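I hope you will forgive my troubling you with a question about protein structure. The matter concerns a single protein, recorded as an amino acid sequence and a row of backbone structure tokens. Please examine both parts with care and let me know of anything in them that strikes you as inconsistent. Here, with my thanks, is the record as I have it:
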Amino acid sequence: MTDALPPTSPFVSGEAAGAAAAGEATAGEAAAVEPADEFLWLEDIHGEAAMAWVRERNGRTDAALLNPAYEALEASVLEVLDSKDRIAMVSKRGQWYYNFWRDEANPRGLWRRTTWESYLGNAPEWQVLLDVDALCTAEDTQWIWAGASLLRPAPGEEYRHAMLALSPDGGDAVAYREFDLATLAFVPGGFELPAAKTRLSWLDSDTLYVGTDTGAGSMTVSSYPAAARVLHRGESLAQMAAKEPLFSVPLNHLSGGVSHSSTPGFERDVAYDVLDFYNSRSYLRVGENWVHIDVPDDMNVSLHREWLLLRPRTPWHVNDTVHAAGTLLAIGLDAFMAGSRDLLIIFAPTPAQSLQSWSWTRDFLLLNLLSDVSAKILVLDPAAGWAAEELDACPPLHSVDAYAVDEDDLDAGNDYWLVASGYLTPSTVYRGTLASERSTDPSGTPGAAAALVRKAPSFFSTENYSVEQHFATSADGTRIPYFQVGPKGLLLDGGNPTLLSGYGGFEVSRTPAYSGAVGRSWLERGGVYVVANIRGGGEYGPGWHTAALRENRHRAYEDFAAVARDLAARGVAAPARLGCSGGSNGGLLVGNMLTTYPELFGAISCGVPLLDMRRYTKLSAGASWIAEYGDPDVPEQWEFIKTFSPYHLLRTGVDYPATFIWTATSDDRVGPVQARKMAARMEAMGIPVWFHEALEGGHAGAGNNEQAARLHTASHEFLWRALSGEL
């Protein structure tokens, strides 16, 4: 229900993907004076007194929230989440199509697979690989599925070896176990790693590269692995820990590790040293040595077969050329390592258009772009001098993403998925094939042959609603786009209950997306739903993000406030009828709306938030984000950080809007304590606040659909009551 604060940086090196991102603590600086904090005792996450405080507040919120009407609404949202008619998204591995599925009968979920022929039918026949609910019962542990890492087999062989990630509470720390896809069982005596923030990569069927918690000095101050070692079949974790690291980084860097690429003909090891969330170094293993890929630390590095792709986050000066931030450059990897800098510009950003992601098929490169936050897709052909053609598959004000089905399948290597969604358009999945002749369609577009595979059902009637895009003007004159979803012929008298959502951080883009839950819990009740594309996000490329970093953080908040004012000026919603919601970094956003712009809102829902920016680096994975927010232990940085630390900005005598703060005990990314302390300080100051803390679910705040429905509905019900004057 919310944008989670990412555990890893966007555009991390292609073959080093999976590295966590973090901030490098500044050494040798005098610590800032610690402000008085009367609620430090709530930082004892599982302490008896702290948990008693949590249970008491949860009881208060339940007593105020629960009634037959609320329960009916929550059941309606859960019906959406549990619907057997929603799309089962799949990933192709060999001949099989894999999916993870939760519904009413399987709240913890099924990991399963089917064939393509079966998937195309109305009722696919699924082979269940792992029943997580049954595993929970057998082991008396409330496991939550966290993914699978499969070993690429030798050509002509089928996938067999998998490492399954299972979280005991929904947090980022996961246990890994080896699973055999031939016997459909865990491997007796196979690879097994206890719960930790582990990073691993298959080398071969008997060998893993592993970075994990093996005791003092093995994890960075950001709580991620600082080294990678080789783990052979039959070795214990202690035996592995006794070896010299294959690669390691200083503990004040965010993370380090090694990944192996097993692409036939292009097998290689890549090591990554993630300095902070936006700076990293990649190394190729040559013999026994690690050779640095010599680019600036803020470069996004991606390796694919013979190609090296580079995307600078800031302008990059190469010889006599300056490559703008957000440009995508290509060069042969061998040529680059030999000293060549004959870089090819294969995408150049414009003020309105930015590159969001890319995906390789066997012979083509798919670029997913945003043009004023609407999707655009290009197909590039390296064999034809990187000639580009546009896929004619992107309606305005929609999200459309294209990515490879399976680049290594000889028969399907140029097949691609096309996934489209809009605020009023349920997700639709197509499959197409790219070819040098493009297609026989008269239009000549490479996407002409894409065929419909699946279309999700609509969970609310959409014919009476419309989607509009508007632009607000921020304090410094920057135009800020936002989407508005509401009834056609909306009466612009300021009286519409309106929910404004935002994120504004970590180069995360908020793009149009269908939500049956939002439709049922907000739109069908007569509300207006708004999403703001504020700075700090990635909607217009890396410059849109860096404009709101650290000392310029206020720009994100000014942008959001500008949208709120524009909604009032246009007559959509007066402040008393305008609520806002955000989670994680978005929780920090709406926390600043509460403390800095209280006059603009009638209600605020603040989830899994950062709020105490004085101590955030000392809580959970907080040190990871120094590059985003700054280091509060450096006095001159605390001077600007304290201007957006909601915990320190609360004042007496202010008429604050109604506020709901929610979090999760098991969140090991942001953690629950900032939410606890904010609610406790508000209570102590006589400021009305609702508080709820889920006991599991991690940073998502929910470990199953029932919990997700509860959090979504509770947030929307609180906002609706507050904006309708019912609290």
In short: Residues 705-723 form the longest helix (19 residues).
